[in-house]
Amino acid sequence: MTTNVVEVRDLRVTRGSLPVLHGLDLDIDGGVTGLLGPSGCGKTTLMRCLVGVQRIEGGTVTVFGEEAGSPGLRHRIGYHTQAASVYDDLTVRENLVFFARVRGLGRDAVDRAVEAVDLTSHVDHVVGRLSGGQHSRASLAVALLGEPDLVVLDEPTVGLDPVLRQELWELFHRLADAGSAMFVSSHVMDEAERCDRLLLMREGEIIADGTPQQIKESTGAPDAERAFLELVARHAGRHARRDEEGRS
Prior knowledge:
This protein is of the alpha/beta class. The protein has helices at residues 43-51, 92-102, 107-116, 132-143, 162-177, 212-219, 224-247, and strands spanning 6-15, 18-28, 32-36, 58-63, 66-67, 77-80, 150-154, 181-186, 197-202, 205-210.
């Protein structure tokens, strides 16, 4: 019987002839887990695998003990893509009522989602006229409909200023404290410190897994960005040695 929210075993994904994920093994539990790495390293592909919308070449992905994408998980997972999931010409309420109906949820689910993202005073405002941070929270509210047990957020703070990013991370921790497992990706290294657990990704591989403090201590680096650069150098060195051994 599984004890983890998510279990990934030997996950492999290839696009065309190019491997994107290289036999990943990964467990995700509660709290706020951050997935950080440069653009193009495989973060979005991994997140798509968790919600069951990515075709995989091999391996397994289970969520709450069920295969990712199973019908029984549809109301247990909230997914926020990089692209906004709201209509700019509708109000916040109209957007949420529409998506709630699609999912078979009632008005009470809309009210709870609005309250969770602190948009009660803007619920009847047209989304296209909201500020950048309010727009992001409106989109996030869609992912929170039905109070999912796992919330998967793909770079939800991209393009926002530091103050707005801080507000959203505070929200992520409130949601985690309320019982949702949060899995959040970013390519902004200063957001690493905001995670309970940090996964650093490079070229389709997880090159570090631990608390931000553990990862810094393992490299002797004063901050997450320099720790990541040190780990990238070690990762490249290991690959170079393997290539050399393969040629000998």
